[in-house]
Design goal:
By secondary structure, this protein is of the alpha+beta class. It is globular and about 55 Å long. The mean pLDDT is 94. The N and C termini lie far apart (35 Å). Strands 1, 2, 3, 7, 8, 9 and 10 form a seven-stranded mixed β-sheet that branches. Strands 4-5-6 form a three-stranded antiparallel β-sheet. It has two domains: 132 residues, no CATH class; 68 residues, no CATH class. Strand 4 and strand 5 form a beta hairpin.
């Protein structure tokens, strides 16, 4: 694959995300339990493959998820405030039996896959729960659904992260961020690269205090995709 065909995302100053390369664009919705708990992801629509696209990040486009130029009229301030340090530098470490969980609160988008009405990842890894392989498997599944990659796991303290095999693509989530998978390189507006991560969520409501990353503000501001 040539450099021109390689997937990439470039943040434009106070403007959209410019997507280049061969990237599949889809819509993905959380699958919820009868109690409203998010359990996994389901692809609900395939919007095709794009060699180029401009995706809205100001929240005001009438052609969401695509940019229609509204950012030039609504005073959108897209100043990037996301940390430039690495995941390894920021992440807290929790050692359980047969598993090590790492957690970077700085990139969490509060999608809610990390817990249910009975327990959550921190309770399971912090107590004696991971001594039970069934509990450990449930916790691993929760971590693998985390769209921002804030939560990761490894099987041993000195081992590498175990990541789910996610295709290269960008998924539009309902009334929420862009769910970017497959390690697509992300470039800041000043041309500097963000740390490459297998999973990341990008703000498209315009309200995040952690731009260009999502911080969950879409829920607080009542962002709607329609």
């Amino acid at each position: 694959m040539t450099d021109q065909q390689s997937p990439r995302i470039r943040v434009q100053p106070n403007g959209p995300y410019l997507v280049g390369g061969d990237v599949a664009l889809t819509r993905r919705d959380p699958v919820r339990s009868e109690h409203g708990e998010p359990m996994t992801w389901q692809t609900t629509d395939r919007l095709g493959r794009r060699s180029t696209a401009a995706l809205c990040r100001c929240g005001g486009s009438s052609s969401k998820p695509f940019c229609d130029g509204t950012h030039t009229r609504n005073g959108f301030d897209g100043t990037e405030t996301a940390p430039t340090s690495t995941y390894d530098e920021r992440a807290s470490v929790y050692e359980g039996t047969g598993v090590v969980v790492r957690d970077d609160r700085a990139v969490c988008q509060h999608a809610g896959f990390c817990g249910n009405r009975l327990t959550n990842v921190w309770e399971m890894v912090g107590g004696s729960g991971t001594e039970d392989s069934v509990t450990r498997a449930q916790m691993i599944h929760m971590i693998e659904q985390c769209p921002s990659g804030a939560l990761t796991y490894r099987m041993t303290p000195g081992g590498g992260d175990v990541e789910p095999e996610l295709a290269v693509g960008i998924a539009v989530t309902p009334d929420g961020p862009l769910f970017v998978t497959g390690g697509i390189p992300l470039e800041r507006a000043d041309g500097a690269p963000f740390e490459g991560r297998p999973r990341v969520t990008l703000c498209r409501c315009g309200a995040s205090a952690n731009k260009p990353l999502c911080d969950g503000s879409h829920a607080a501001v009542g962002f709607r995709d329609s």
